[in-house]
């Protein structure tokens, strides 16, 4: 008698679908990064002057977040999952951005 469950094991992580994963990180991750920058900029009351501390913070935040997304994109099981997760994150972040911008204005 076999007492093991007949569940299939999840597919191991691999880099075989590297192009869809990287393209999701570059395109959707870039949009997500700019959305995060917009939300943080609104919360910090940043202006358009590049010499202020808040503008410099946002400048370096973009590079940090985008590098993290490019690194983490290989943890998705497939390119389709990477696109789906980043698309949902984009909708949430940009919705938050427009909601905050509507309240601030």
From TrEMBL:
The chain crosses the membrane at residues 22-45, 57-77, 83-104. Keywords: Membrane, Transmembrane, Transmembrane helix. This is Uncharacterized protein. It comes from Acetobacter senegalensis.
């Amino acid at each position: 008698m076999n007492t093991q469950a007949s569940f299939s094991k999840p597919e191991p992580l691999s880099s075989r679908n590297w192009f869809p994963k990287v393209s999701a990180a570059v395109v959707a991750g870039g949009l997500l990064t700019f959305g995060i920058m917009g939300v943080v900029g609104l919360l910090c009351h940043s202006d358009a002057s590049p010499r202020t501390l808040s503008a410099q913070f946002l400048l370096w935040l973009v590079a940090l977040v985008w590098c993290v997304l490019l690194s983490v994109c290989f943890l998705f099981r497939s390119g389709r999952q990477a696109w789906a997760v980043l698309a949902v994150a984009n909708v949430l972040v940009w919705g938050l951005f427009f909601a905050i911008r509507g309240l601030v204005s």
